[in-house]
Every structure is written in structure tokens, then in C-alpha cells.
Amino acid sequence: MDKQAVFAQVAHLEERIGELYGELGSLKKKIIELLEENSKLQIENENLRNRMNRKSSKQGEGSVQMGEGFDALARLYHEGFHVCNAQYGSLRTQGGCMFCLSFLYKEV
Ligand SMILES: [Zn+2]
């Protein structure tokens, strides 16, 4: 058995796993960025819809309130706090949180 070749193969594999891990990390970052962008747009959308609802009539008050609940949570998130069950109310120190984002999306 050629030990040298086996070691070389292991080293190579380790390197590839490292690369894959890095790729996974940057993909995760991109997903978080996309979700955050999406949730910002959703806030804007809700704001516009609420404004329109208030102007036109008071019939849609139920949906307005639901929108405002989401709005408050999403706003809190964008101000840098966790809204997920795990760390609710604590400061987000490591950037985006997937738990928060998935929680926000469950609310919609
Ligand atoms: Zn969180």
C-alpha cells in the first residue's frame, strides 16, 4: 500500500471539504441577505397597503392590525434584535439570523 498516496488523497479531500464548507457559508449568507431584502420590501408593501386602507375606508381594519403585528416584529429585527423564540429581544451580534427570518415568514 502506498501510504504517501493515501495521505495525499486525504489532504486533497480535506482541502475540498474546506472549499465546500466555505461555499456553503457564502450561500447561507446570500440566503440571509435575500430574505432580509424580501422582508424589507414586505414592510414597505405593508406600509403602503395600510396607508391605502386607512385612506379608502375602515373596513379592512382586521388585516391592517395583522400587518402591523408583522411590521413591528420585522422592524425590531431590522433594528438589530432577535425576534425568534430562541433569542427573542436580544441583540443580533452575528448579523442575519435564519431563525428570526423563518419565524417572520411563518407570520405572513
Ligand atoms: Zn434570531
TrEMBL record:
Q: Indicate the quaternary assembly.
A: Homotetramer. Interacts with both DnaA and DnaN, acting as a bridge between these two proteins.
Question: Gene that codes for this?
Answer: yabA
Q: What is this protein called?
A: Replication initiation control protein YabA
InterPro entries noted in UniProt: YabA (IPR010377)
Q: Which cofactor does it need?
A: Zn(2+)
Instruction: Say which domain of life the source belongs to.
Output: Bacteria
Record's keyword terms, sorted: Coiled coil, Cytoplasm, DNA replication, DNA replication inhibitor, Metal-binding, Zinc
User: Its biological function?
Assistant: Involved in control of chromosome replication initiation. Inhibits the cooperative binding of DnaA to the oriC region, thus negatively regulating initiation of chromosome replication. Inhibits the ability of DnaA-ATP to form a helix on DNA; does not disassemble preformed DnaA-DNA helices. Decreases the residence time of DnaA on the chromosome at its binding sites (oriC, replication forks and promoter-binding sites). Tethers DnaA to the replication machinery via the DNA polymerase beta sliding clamp subunit (dnaN).
- Provide the Gene Ontology terms for cellular component: bacterial nucleoid
- Which amino acids does the record list as binding Zn(2+)? 82, 84, 97, 100
> Is Magnesium there in the keyword field?
no
Q: Would you identify the family this protein belongs to, as annotated?
A: Belongs to the YabA family.
Q: Please provide the Gene Ontology terms (biological process) for this protein.
A: DNA replication; negative regulation of DNA replication
Give a single Pfam family match: YabA
Q: Can you quote the record's cofactor note? A: Binds 1 zinc ion per subunit.
Any GO MF annotation of the entry: zinc ion binding
Give compartment(s): Cytoplasm, Nucleoid
Q: Which residues form a coiled coil?
A: 10-58
